[in-house]
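Dear support,

Our group has been running a series of protein-ligand predictions, and this particular one with BES is the one our PI (initials K.S.) wants archived with full inputs and outputs. We had some confusion internally about which version of the output was final, so please treat the block below as the authoritative record. The input we submitted was:
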Amino acid sequence: MNTHIIKTDKITFESNPVLIANDINKLVPGLLSKKEISYIKTQQKNDPLKTFFHFNKLEYHVFVCLNSQPVEDIEYKSIEEWRKLGSKLASVVKAEKINTFCIGVGNIKDTEEYAFLEGFLLGSYSYNKYKPNPKEKIVKLSIQLAGSSLNKASIDCLNIIHESVTIARNWVNEPGSNLTPAAFCKDVSQMFTSVPSVKLDILSPKKIATLKMAGIEAVSKGSENPPAFIVLEYLPKDVKKNKPYVLVGKGIFFDTGGINLKPSAGLADMKCDMSGAAAVAAAIYIIAKMKLKVNVVGLIPATENRPGRLAYLPGDILTMMNGVTVEIKNTDAEGRLILADALCYASRYNPVLTMTIATLTGSAHATFGYHAIAGMQNNAEMPFSILKSASFNVHERIAELPMWNDYEKMIESGVAEIQNVGGKFAGAITAAKFLQKFTDYPFIHLDIAGPAYTESANSYIPAGGTGVGVRLFFEFFNTISKMAK
Ligand code: BES
Ligand code: ZN
Ligand code: ZN
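Confirmed final output from the archive:
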């Protein structure tokens, strides 16, 4: 979708006015009749939670969005309410196929206006690539802002966030047979041709073998589609001396479970098993486009987990890049194997912090449902607290699980150093403990198995791929970048 946001100083009825404010008395004047104002007042008296009003005038539409939530509150509810209001506008605009409107900004703060627009843009998404006659479709959006105090950087930022979250969602929603590791590599190369500050390297299966990336090699054996290992380096000149951050995203382009084949229920959703990969590529894209003052490297091990003729087997023992031996107890615990390779590879950067993001365990999904990222950290308390507060700012909230050493015993193997499953309990934690074996730097692990892919739409979060992690990483690095100034 093509979006164009410009500032203006006058609102006309033809441009479909959208009036936003904290209070009915603070709306941009002259666009509502006395009757309409008193209608809103009566409605709000009967139901104070009613915040969105739509007047269909046949030749044009008038929208009123009122949000009087208190600003300071611990769950950042007011900002999230503004995003939700933005998404209400998006759903009407999609259904009515309106593509031009003018937002008249009342007495609200920059952050509130920004959140409204963000909710609107993210809510305007729909995945209809394969629908012949989509009910909801916006091809082009032209948004005028009247009375806005957002600066150009904020507007650019909104556009880039919209673009990159859309790309991440599209990747996740694309059927598994279409988005192979090779197809993803092609998309990533295309996407980054317009971003010269990012160096892209795609390691071939041969190079993967030379580097002894045993996890990727084993997992990819059951598929005819070759694996890849993607390296995205954003090391801007003026911050070159600082140690980089490394982001690692799980790129399983379809997870059948392998020889330990998954049951049918929910299997189609396993196209989402590359959501971590999508989040890393899309986040690096925004970070570079916004020219943040921070060094970030993205690593994406990309393959499929299929039960093909030569598929790796339960009982196999792998010798990983760092010499650790791993007994395969279950071929469905494949994500941690390919992430382990990337974590070993990350060591060469001597990173200040490495973060993994992965749809890693059913356990995280079962614990938190769709509403939280399971976050764990080792030796990274400070950045974890910054990340956690970023997560509440963007409403991609992290809930912390412990990484105590007591859990390490659960992944001890009888025949190798460790095994790739930890038993019945604490699955999200034992997976993280497995990953920790391949780190020699501060480490944060984010398990997004719950929030990466949803059954039904919820305000600006669509059904299917959500793009979780993209805004979170951007918010985190934006904070780090500002701290560096
Ligand atoms: N990709 C799955 C995890 C997953 C589950 C993602 C639900 C999204 C939604 C992962 O590879 C997996 O199969 N994990 C197993 C591990 C087990 C065999 C130790 C799981 O969690 O059941
Ligand atoms: Zn699996
Ligand atoms: Zn998986």
